[in-house]
């Protein structure tokens, strides 16, 4: 059904595998459209999806905008319009998902591909992967959320050095900096990330969703507003079946069986 990615759903876990390995899964116009469709399907009411994992086929995770298509920068293209028209819908759809998102970064994450990796709640990378703010190397500025996410994750000093120098940051260094959650051996990435994503797909989905939206909101909220936001989310979480089940399971000294409701 899709040409540029593989989309599967199994036991509540949706997986998008970017699948243009010859160009390190660079983001073509077609890929953006297909990503939007896939993310929307995952998030659609009644889809049964409770977690989303994004990874890449081959040796790259995603090399950012497909530069072979033309239209990126130069005198003919309008990258600003490209962003608004076709990147932002995908990235906003991802940001608004009411479920946890994991990226399994199997290789280079460059340009908007790095931005994509960082949209996840949990980023786990193969040891050979690296992160690259490639934009400056082609005379562009970081986009698709990088100027928002990166300083928050690693602080302005490291963020600006990455953005201005356009150097490769190896996965281990990225983890040391707090840019990503975990690094694992290349051979262990798929299994480790899938196990983590499956666990999230069986988690208390409503609470997990509130957690991701609360943390996102914290960037723009003052302390008092964030306390309010927590109280509202906690009221909603406290009314879920999963909350009742979690407490009951604790009292009965058994693992909780969450249903996502
Ligand atoms: O208008 C808009 O869309 C605005 C939005 C902009 C968002 C952006 O993401 S701008 C940034 C775009 N991305 C880049 O500038 C990264 C370009 N790629 C690289 O710097 C390097 O390829 C990597 C550091 C990612 C990987 O290096 P390496 O040495 O491991 O691999 P390679 O040999 O350079 O690439 C392998 C193949 O993938 C190669 O093709 P070939 O020669 O085997 O036929 C290469 O051309 C292709 N490839 C890599 N990146 C892209 C790409 N093809 C198209 N677009 C790419 N971005």
Automatic annotation (TrEMBL):
One of its GO terms (molecular function) is catalytic activity. The lineage of its organism: Bacteria, Pseudomonadati, Pseudomonadota, Alphaproteobacteria, Kordiimonadales. Transmembrane segments: none annotated. Belongs to the enoyl-CoA hydratase/isomerase family. Pfam families: ECH_1 (PF00378). It comes from the Bacteria. This is Short chain enoyl-CoA hydratase /enoyl-CoA hydratase. InterPro entries: ClpP/crotonase-like_dom_sf, Enoyl-CoA_hyd/isom_CS, Enoyl-CoA_hydra/iso, Enoyl-CoA_hydra_C.
